[in-house]
Description:
Layout: H1 3-34, H2 47-59, H3 69-83, H4 85-94, H5 109-135, H6 152-178, H7 190-198, H8 205-225, H9 231-244, E1 264-265, E2 268-269, H10 292-300, H11 306-310, H12 312-315, H13 322-341, H14 356-359, H15 364-370, H16 386-390, H17 397-401, H18 408-421, H19 428-440, E3 473-476, H20 478-483, H21 485-501, E4 505-506, H22 517-522, H23 525-542, E5 552-555, H24 558-567, E6 576-579, H25 580-589, E7 603-605, H26 619-629, H27 663-672, E8 678-681, H28 684-696, E9 704-707, H29 708-716
Parallel strand pairs: 3-4, 3-5, 5-6, 7-8, 8-9
Antiparallel strand pairs: 1-2
Helix pairs in contact: 1-8, 2-9, 3-5, 4-8, 5-6, 6-7, 6-8, 9-10, 10-13, 13-15, 21-29, 25-26, 26-29, 27-28
Amino acid sequence: xxxxxxxxxxxxxxxxxxxxxxxxxxxxxxxxxxxxxxxxxxxxxxxxxxxxxxxxxxxxxxxxxxxxxxxxxxxxxxxxxxxxxxxxxxxxxxxxxxxxxxxxxxxxxxxxxxxxxxxxxxxxxxxxxxxxxxxxxxxxxxxxxxxxxxxxxxxxxxxxxxxxxxxxxxxxxxxxxxxxxxxxxxxxxxxxxxxxxxxxxxxxxxxxxxxxxxxxxxxxxxxxxxxxxxxxxxxxxxxxxxxxxxxxxxxxxxxxxxxxxxxxxxxxxxxxxxxxxxxxxxxxxxxxxxxxxxxxxxxxxxxxxxxxxxxxxxxxxxxxxxxxxxxxxxxxxxxxxxxxxxxxxxxxxxxxxxxxxxxxxxxxxxxxxxxxxxxxxxxxxxxxxxxxxxxxxxxxxxxxxxxxxxxxxxxxxxxxxxxxxxxxxxxxxxxxxxxxxxxxxxxxxxxxxxxxxxxxxxxxxxxxxxxxxxxxxxxxxxxxxxxxxxxxxxxxxxxxxxxxxxxxxxxxxxxxxxxxxxxxxxxxxxxxxxxxxxxxxxxxxxxxxxxxxxxxxxxxxxxxxxxxxxxxxxxxxxxxxxxxxxxxxxxxxxxxxxxxxxxxxxxxxxxxxxxxxxxxxxxxxxxxxxxxxxxxxxxxxxxxxxxxxxxxxxxxxxxxxxxxxxxxxxxxxxxxxxxxxxxxxxxxxxxxxxxxxxxxxxxxxxxxxxxxxxxxxxxxxxxxxxxxxxxxxxxx
Length: 732
């Protein structure tokens, strides 16, 4: 060992010792912060399914590859980081001797070939990612960037570190080639040989280059260890457990889509008959009241802005960015952590749990952070502004796009639950809707005895449960389908088509009440459970004696479809629920319904969030429309899982849209740009919002918004009256 090797070895050992010590300290801090969260015992179930999903999503990059070039480049960089960590380890042998290498595998030709290929692809991948970040930088002219609000220096730092580590990997090999110490043939390592051809025959070059590579790598580790909220770096470690502990690992969609996470206290579902606000947690009022998985979510965010780029609120000038919301919660949690770890915190009555002695040594900034309200305006020093919280439509675009399975919607609704149930703080106009749900069983406040009025004038009898001995499907009409004039046309069309196809069905009539979706998504879990338990009891009675496979429900509203199929199971209601477009597609494919006259003028289809993204029903409505028009529908640029929200979800249907551009107008402009004369929908909320948008654009005579069922009915029974332009909704 020469003098150069002695110096490089000492440098490598010294910086590595510092980096490892800081990294261990950082991991302990992050673990302590995450453990502050509430229990979530369900996250440990189905370990086999969780392991499989984690491996598929990480090794297969299934959530990233849908982004094409970006996903492929990221995969090469990820694989390079994992596999080429062996070359960083090898550098510790190379600082000590110019012909050093990994024991055993370090001299295998296959090792040289594989690491050469991964090194080259990693270089290409990181250069692509760097170019994409620069092209989408927030300061670029025109348009909002998905990186707006991200800590850009951290992204640049990580990318340059990766680039330099890869470059010095080839420099080390090049010096080995130049000094004739390289063990791999040209055919296996052509790039390394090419680099060696231009480097001098410097005996100490290998050790110096290896030391620089180690210093670069350990500098990266030191920097991220001193910045525990540096998600752009830490996500490469935290993504694995965050995906493993996702809520529902067997779901094909994002884990936080479909059903909402039940309201819990100390890890157990809340029973409202026994719950006590002074003993049980009602939603989330403090950052430590999120589950530990929530705190892991916040820590894992890589600040890529995929959620932000797809969010309808962000894209129409609202203050909500799912990314910035998560980052605000993350930064608040870590800033407040010293106070919490010292024993601080408020109990459910608002009393301080720590003694003055426990808090005496704390930094004043940690104490100031502890005094911040979780929800509050800038003047109040709040972490999350109320306008941010109430802008969410719960469309799920953020969850569907997130490459590390952060469950944004669950966290937003948890914060809403506390605001509604304990603080009674929510947009005033939504109060009318909640009172109507409690008193009338529907958000419009329509009389219950008018639930069956939609059946008047039909040329066939609509059977009621209890009036017929048997039926195949229970037709869940829903509040919109029963009371809202536009939606009643859809209800009548579906009933007519089912009758035409000879499907045995029955309705509950006045026995039906609201599914509870608006109440649950605005945060009023109490009203949701009241309505849901009533419906579950009614439905269980209607299906008494039937196994689950024969407890079939067809619903025209995706919100009812989602609630009955995905959430009623939490309350003892197990049913097979299908959307009407699924049933209609089946009836057409089996020849029970036959389109005879194509609908002309061009048709585009708007995917409802709760049908498409939340429940992955994309094909059925398109199949129905394709048969009805005898051709291809004209797709909007944002369709299927990336469909743009109409603006009505998350109980936004009953809240005024006062900030930025109206979401429904943005979507209508996109639909009209296709040139289609018919905008087909599969949701009554979407119908209302898009109709309002079309009328607002003064295009009511040129563009018609109707349900898929109405399109099919016009094709199956051309003699049916075309119907009026959709009229206004029933007033509450």
